[in-house]
Amino acid sequence: MKRAARMQDVAGFGIDRVADAVVGADVLRLENLDTDLPLPPEAVEVTRAALEEPVSNSWLPFTGDLGLRAAISDHIAARHGRVYDPRSQIVVTCGGCEAVLDILLATIDPGDEVVLTDPIYAGLVNRVRLAGGVPVFAPLVVDGGEWRLDHDALRAAISPRTVALLMMSPSMPSGCVLDRSDWAEVARLCLEHDLFLLYDAAMEALVFDGRELCGPLEHEGMAERTVIAGSMSKAYRMIGWRVGWIAGPASVVSDAGWVHVYNTTGAVSVARRAAEAVLRGPQDHVAECVAELQRRRDTILDALPGWRIVKPAGGWSLLVETDMTPEAFLAAGVAATPMAGWGDSVAAKYTRFVFATEPPARLATLATRLS
């Protein structure tokens, strides 16, 4: 059977192969983004209560309930100071990654280049390819033991074929957090080269060490050039609910919304209702989640003082520079993901540890497991 040319460079994560090779219950599960952190209090309660209501078995509305879109608008306004019209500038999707693909399919022509950092989430790289685009990588640098955006490298990655920057902060899997000077440079390059920004905001609340929350919409001219892909899966830990969103200029959101409709029809009604309740409910559990994730990060750093680990400034994972294979890690009772395909030459040197599933007491056993 004919194989589409776009599939030539699309590769798997490596996560599935590592997970399939796990044998026994004592293996530290550091290979995927599942989490044992508690759900928001409203998530299960509202989902259970809505199951028997007729509206929960409806296709409609395809682009998401207006109440949820209004809650998303308020959520973004509180974080970024920008109000999006719930009717024309927000679409609800089946998770944040569907939002990314919808946006790319609505904006990218075959051969268009999209600039991402190296390392970056393989799911973003391959969605650029699925949309017919060409991913181009700007290497991150390690500065003071943390990942930083290299402004010169970002500038050098832009060519006459570039149409967009795809940025995430904190970034998966590195935990790189962009500060105000970084976002100012992103804004400058977008304006100078007439680019748009696809901002993956899935992890933006998960920043460590008291860092200030900031983003691209603070900079002049970026509201018209930014399309946001948001998600309930990270800060709200609602992975299985599969609720995300697109927010941005009405013309792009309309096009991306039709991509969403013709791809998935609509996000699950029960999940949408739970998402609205969580966004409207108390938010203190997000800070508690951040504090616990920071404790887990620090537990790994303390357990492996001699290892070449780049300290993440946020997110759910960290990167270890090592020659150890996934098989060698598994032999030590640790499931970890190799980074081939998660960017370019920088990513290939690292292995990813996710610290969202294992509690600190178990993470502390890394010292003996890997000794």
TrEMBL record:
Task: Please give the cofactor(s) recorded in the UniProt entry for this protein.
Answer: pyridoxal 5'-phosphate
Cite the GO molecular-function annotations of the record: transaminase activity
Q: What is this protein called?
A: Pyridoxal phosphate-dependent aminotransferase
- Protein's organism: Solirubrobacter deserti
Aminotransferase class I/classII large domain sequence ranges: 37-367
Keyword annotations of the record = Aminotransferase, Pyridoxal phosphate, Transferase
